[in-house]
Amino acid sequence: MGNHWTLQDAKNKFSAVVDAAQQGIPQHVTKRGVEAVVVLSAEEYERLSQLDPGPDKTFIEHLLSAPKLPEGLDDLFDDRDQYPSTPREIEFD
Q: Which residues of 38-50 are buried (b: 16+ CB within 10 A; e: fewer)?
């Protein structure tokens, strides 16, 4: 079975699912062919729960925190008007 189980197989072999998770191998369980849950050891769950996700940012704050262009490249996109586009003539018959 490895570490991927259908829901029915995971129910039937729950002890094996738990044993593998306790050995540090996350167990993926699918429901109707779609991954539904991952079974982890309690130790791994606690470790992941302690990770600091950082402060919640608004979408605007997220965009403003993007890396800035290096000095001298500020006008990188300012040449858009250098190449004016002219529409081609199309005849509709």
A: ebbbeebeeeeee
